């Protein structure tokens, strides 16, 4: 686009003397030679070698950088480093100095980091251009003879920096710029006669590219960094040329002699010569030569500001704005208007397209853009450009309420534009149910219009993603006006539920629905069969049953694609039959067919399924009138009940059999659950005597009470009972002793049956004979017990007071003749002492009699233990579900048995005691008696500890108290009996009355009370006695 065709706007305000004349006052006696800006201050250098640092509040800091003059300066944007080139002595000897403006000495001079000479080779030449990389590792200096020197390394250190001459003498260097990409670093070079770029990424491997053979003047080149692709711009008299590292870029036709180029944000500032009136002189003055300021918006191709200022010296950009310094050292500020002011200016001129471009370039928020689009659309509507308006309104989708646009195009003549907007609304996913309805109605109207194509069909056949709409709503709308298109839409978008619903409700095509479901995958087929199975079975029972057989065994879709996917994983997919049983509630025959097929296929069904099959078997059996068919279903039912692999609920099966009066099933289930009483009652209710007798014969040995129940039913419920049945019942009752004769006679007497004494004559005669025989046996047994009791009494008297002669001559253990020392027991067993010590387990028991005595003692202890379980018995009896089993268990333990025990003075061991052997004399009294006794026990290996009399009496009391509840007490006169110790060696019993009391260590001594060492005497201090409690 030519420069003259660009639109011109006034987006900047030019403000004069923003520094209030401070710069002009500073340079009264000197001239500004260099300018730069960055790091929050403006840098000015004069002809005397001084540098001025101006802050934002126009505070000035001055220091002398060179003795002669300063020629070049570059202030880094984001670093306090200032790089200058100047002369310290007469002649041509340029010096590079690097200043740290963040560090000042006491004289206000910044720290100088580096001083080095700027000489290309060995020739003294004036420097013409300076450029420093923001990374502080690269610096380039151009000279008037065309030489170019590149410095690598830290620019603050002379020693670490290496210089290289990239270009020898040629045309004067007028511009330098560094450009950094993700992988490379480029150095652009502009001279009077050429434009060159160097790839300086790698040291000593710099590559030179010639971009153009035409150059530019000094300060007429700049790097545009804020564009999408950074361009090196060169200003010539005819145009602005752009260059990249790859070659030449776009060109902008801007006429005029260029003085200076500068880049600010996204604007290109051009200073060129002109003959227009200057802003710095009054209007009545004649026209003089001045400089034209032109600010271009390269991206949007606008001229955003133009003005004329006399003799511009420099353009400075800092603090988010840019300033202009003229030859008279006056400072101008170009203040950019805010975005809202720009847009308001454009809205007044109806330049909405320009406003949109500017808003987008300055990252305007989306809500603001939508407002511009809306105003632009309204403007186009007013002009009658409805297509353009719709295009603008489409850009507002998502922010602007659709009803705002729809109301403008409800007229029938705008139906096509409204359709365009609604389609865009669906594509972007912001359509509602009403929008979809409106769009489909628009399609319908367009189809009815002459010359219009079938838009509705095109809408249906449109690819997915072209329009984002709610398919359900579309189907619902099409269903009302065009059912065929609704069906097509549901099938295209795989809306299976809608398709099946439309086929069933609108077309009644049930078989087609089953075919469609059979093409679906397993999950969908299962889902829709559960949902619509009831209707399908009612209207197509055979086809539905066949499909359910497939679905519940090994389902495979008719769709080949689904089958290939399933086959690759070898999946066996089948549904749970229990989910479909309720569908057959009104069709038992189909349900039986369905479940029988599953059982034949080896499917393992759940208990409720088997229960349902049994119930429907009986339902069909009960409704049949054909006898053969009834027998067939009866056999099926019994076979089902008798199959051990089928897990059905027996209680529920019994209820169902009762409901349908299926006797064979009832009797089988009773027998399976061992409910023999219920079997007998069933036969009694049928009044079938033969069945009653057969039941008692078959199960009577397992449950004898069946005979008793049969007797009661025989005498109560029938007027003329079967005599054979009665006789057999009485015979079994008598044999098994199920009832006493008295109860039998009472039962026969209280019953309503016509039974005479003659009918039971044989039973009564047999019972009387058995009672006589039993009485005779009991009397004989009583006489024998009496005789045995008398013999035992005589033996007890003999043991108490009689003389016992021990005549044993052989040892009961080794059977050798007895030799002293010997041990004799009252049970007539005798032992050698060494044999007794070898065989005995207890010191006071005969080894030969010990096993029998031990068994008797354990029996007595067990019975005594059971007698103490009264509270436990009652507690368990209250908590038990079956109290009879608890009572039977305790009865078996002998808790309820009453028996007689004749107590003796030694209840624990009712056996004769052995005679004590008198060991060699041991002094068991006096000092050290206890120690001597323990020592002798260790030597002999035997410890004889006699049972104390008090412990024996305590045990007698305990046994007697624990047995009082169940033992019939027989009083007996006891005489205190001393133990009879027969000895074979000479010895003396210390407890006999004729024993010398003085030899008894336990006898009380009269002098004992006066023994001061006796801790048990009465007058002993009880507090000092450790054994006193």
Mean pLDDT level: 76
What's the number of helices?
33
What separation lies between the terminal Cα atoms? 127 Å
Helix content class: 40-55%
Provide the structure class: alpha+beta
Percent in strands: 15-25%
What does the radius of gyration come to?
Answer: 64 Å
Strand order of the largest sheet: 1-26-25-24-23
Largest sheet: 5 strands, mixed
**Bulk shape:** elongated
Give start-end ranges of low-pLDDT stretches.
278-288, 901-929, 938-948, 954-993, 1006-1010
**What's the number of extended β-strand segments?**
31
Walkthrough of the structure:
It is a single chain. With 1029 residues, the chain is an alpha+beta fold. It is 40% helix and 18% strand. It has 33 helices and 31 strands.
Features of the shown structure:
five-stranded mixed sheet; elongated; four-stranded antiparallel sheet; 1029 residues; alpha+beta; single chain
How is this fold's topology laid out?
Layout lengths: L6 E2 L3 E4 L6 H5 L5 E7 L2 E6 L3 E5 L5 E5 L4 E7 L5 E7 L6 E11 L5 E8 L9 E6 L5 E6 L4 E5 L9 E6 L5 E8 L4 E7 L3 E5 L7 E6 L8 E4 L6 E5 L4 E5 L2 E6 L5 E7 L2 E8 L15 E8 L4 E8 L2 E7 L2 E6 L4 E6 L2 H10 L3 H10 L4 H18 L2 H9 L7 H5 L8 H13 L5 H16 L6 H6 L10 H11 L1 H10 L3 H12 L2 H9 L3 H18 L1 H13 L6 H10 L18 H13 L6 H17 L3 H16 L7 H10 L3 H10 L3 H11 L2 H11 L5 H12 L6 H14 L4 H10 L10 H41 L20 E3 L5 E3 H7 L10 H18 L2 H10 L3 H11 L35 H12 L8 H15 L66
Parallel strand pairs: 1-26
Antiparallel strand pairs: 2-29, 3-4, 4-5, 5-6, 7-8, 8-9, 9-10, 11-12, 12-13, 13-14, 15-16, 16-17, 17-18, 19-20, 20-21, 21-22, 23-24, 24-25, 25-26, 27-28, 28-29, 30-31
Keywords: Lysosome, Membrane, Metal-binding, Protein transport, Transport, Zinc, Zinc-finger
GO molecular function, one term: zinc ion binding
Protein name: Vacuolar protein sorting-associated protein 11 homolog
């Amino acid at each position: 686009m030519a420069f003259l065709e660009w639109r011109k706007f006034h987006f900047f305000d030019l403000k004069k003397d923003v520094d209030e004349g401070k710069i002009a006052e500073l340079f009264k006696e000197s001239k500004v030679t260099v300018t730069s800006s960055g790091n929050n201050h403006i840098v000015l250098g004069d002809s005397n070698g001084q540098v001025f640092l101006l802050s934002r509040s126009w505070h000035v800091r001055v220091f002398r950088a060179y003795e002669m003059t300063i020629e070049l300066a570059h202030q880094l944007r984001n670093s306090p480093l200032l790089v200058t080139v100047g002369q310290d002595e007469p002649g041509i000897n340029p010096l590079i100095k690097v200043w740290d403006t963040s560090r000042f000495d006491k004289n206000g001079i910044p720290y100088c980091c580096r001083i080095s000479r700027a000489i290309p080779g060995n020739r003294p030449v004036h420097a013409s251009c300076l450029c420093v990389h923001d990374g502080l590792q690269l610096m380039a200096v151009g000279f008037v003879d065309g030489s170019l020197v590149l410095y690598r390394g830290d620019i603050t250190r002379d020693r670490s920096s290496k210089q290289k001459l990239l270009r020898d003498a040629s045309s004067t260097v007028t511009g330098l710029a560094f450009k950094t990409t993700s992988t490379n670093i480029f150095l652009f070079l502009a001279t009077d006669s050429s434009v060159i770029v160097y790839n300086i990424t790698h040291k000593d491997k710099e590559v030179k590219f010639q971009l153009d053979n035409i150059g530019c003047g000094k300060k007429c080149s700049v790097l545009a960094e804020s564009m999408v692709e950074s361009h090196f711009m060169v200003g010539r008299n005819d145009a602005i040329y752009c260059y990249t590292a790859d070659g030449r870029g776009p060109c902008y036709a801007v006429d005029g002699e260029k003085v200076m180029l500068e880049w600010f944000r996204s604007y290109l500032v051009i200073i060129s010569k002109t003959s227009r009136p200057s802003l710095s002189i009054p209007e009545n003055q004649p026209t003089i030569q001045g400089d034209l300021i032109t600010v271009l918006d390269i991206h949007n191709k606008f001229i955003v500001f133009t003005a004329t200022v006399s003799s511009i010296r420099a353009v400075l950009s800092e603090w988010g704005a840019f300033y202009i310094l003229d030859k008279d050292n006056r400072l101008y500020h170009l203040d950019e208007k805010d975005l809202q002011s720009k847009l308001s200016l454009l809205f007044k001129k109806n330049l909405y397209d320009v406003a949109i471009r500017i808003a987008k370039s300055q990252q305007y928020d989306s809500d603001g853009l939508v407002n511009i689009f809306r105003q632009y659309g309204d403007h186009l509507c007013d002009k009658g450009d409805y297509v353009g308006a719709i295009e603008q309104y489409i850009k507002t989708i998502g922010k602007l309420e659709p009803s705002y646009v729809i109301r403008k195009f409800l007229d029938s003549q705008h139906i096509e534009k409204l359709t365009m907007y609604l389609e865009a609304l669906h594509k972007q996913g912001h359509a509602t149910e009403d929008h979809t309805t409106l769009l489909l109605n628009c399609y319908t109207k367009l189809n009815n219009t002459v010359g219009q194509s079938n838009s509705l069909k095109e809408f249906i056949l449109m690819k997915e993603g072209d329009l984002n709409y709610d398919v359900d709503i579309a189907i619902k709308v099409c269903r009302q006006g065009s059912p065929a298109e609704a069906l097509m839409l549901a099938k295209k978008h795989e809306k299976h539920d809608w398709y099946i619903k439309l086929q069933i409700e609108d077309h009644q095509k049930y078989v087609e629905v089953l075919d469609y479901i059979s093409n679906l995958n397993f999950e969908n087929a299962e889902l829709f069969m559960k949902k619509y199975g009831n209707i399908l079975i009612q209207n197509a029972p055979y086809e539905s049953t066949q499909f359910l057989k497939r679905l519940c065994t090994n389902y495979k879709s008719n769709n080949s694609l689904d089958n290939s996917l399933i086959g690759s994983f070898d999946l066996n997919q089948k549904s749970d039959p229990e989910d479909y049983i309720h569908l057959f509630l009104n069709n038992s025959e189909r349900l039986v067919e369905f479940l029988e097929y599953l059982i034949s296929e080896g499917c393992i069904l759940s208990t409720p399924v088997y229960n349902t099959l049994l119930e429907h078997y009986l339902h069909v059996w009960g409704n049949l009138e054909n006898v053969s068919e009834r027998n067939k279903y009866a056999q099926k039912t019994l076979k089902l009940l008798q199959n051990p692999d089928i897990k059905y609920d027996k209680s529920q099966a019994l209820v169902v059999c009762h409901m349908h009066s299926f006797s064979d099933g009832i009797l089988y289930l009773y027998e399976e659950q061992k409910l023999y009483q219920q079997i007998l009652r069933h036969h009694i209710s049928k009044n079938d005597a033969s069945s009653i007798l057969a039941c008692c014969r078959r199960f009577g040995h397992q449950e004898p009470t069946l005979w008793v129940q049969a007797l009661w039913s025989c005498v109560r419920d029938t007027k003329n009972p079967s005599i054979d049945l009665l006789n057999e019942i009485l015979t079994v009752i008598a044999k098994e002793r199920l009832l006493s004769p008295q109860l039998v006679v009472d039962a026969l007497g209280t019953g309503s049956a016509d039974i005479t004494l003659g009918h039971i004559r044989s039973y009564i005669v047999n019972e009387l004979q058995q009672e006589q025989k039993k009485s005779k046996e009991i009397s004989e047994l009583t006489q024998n017990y009496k005789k045995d009791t008398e013999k035992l009494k005589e033996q007890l008297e003999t043991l108490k007071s009689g003389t016992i002669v021990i005549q044993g001559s052989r040892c009961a253990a080794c059977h050798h003749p007895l030799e002293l020392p010997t041990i004799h027991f009252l049970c007539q067993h005798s032992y050698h002492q060494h044999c007794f010590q070898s065989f005995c387990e207890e010191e006071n028991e005969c080894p030969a009699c010990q096993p029998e005595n031990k068994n008797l003692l354990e029996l007595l202890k067990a019975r005594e233990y059971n007698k103490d379980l009264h509270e436990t018995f009652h507690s368990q009896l209250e908590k038990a579900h079956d109290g009879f089993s608890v009572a039977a268990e305790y009865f078996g333990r002998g808790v309820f048995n009453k028996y007689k025990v004749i107590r003796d003075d030694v209840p624990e061991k009712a056996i004769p005691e052995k005679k004590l052997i008198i060991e060699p004399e041991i002094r068991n009294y006096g000092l050290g008696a206890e120690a001597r006794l323990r020592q002798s026990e260790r030597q002999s290996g035997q410890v004889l500890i006699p049972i104390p009399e008090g412990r024996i009496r305590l045990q007698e009391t305990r046994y007697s108290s624990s047995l009082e509840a169940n033992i019939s007490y027989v009083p007996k006169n006891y005489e205190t009996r001393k133990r009879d110790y027969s000895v074979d060696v000479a010895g003396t019993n210390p407890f006999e009355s004729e024993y010398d009391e003085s030899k008894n260590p336990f006898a009380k001594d009269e002098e004992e009370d006066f023994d001061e060492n006796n801790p048990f005497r009465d007058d002993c201090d009880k507090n000092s006695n450790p054994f006193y409690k």
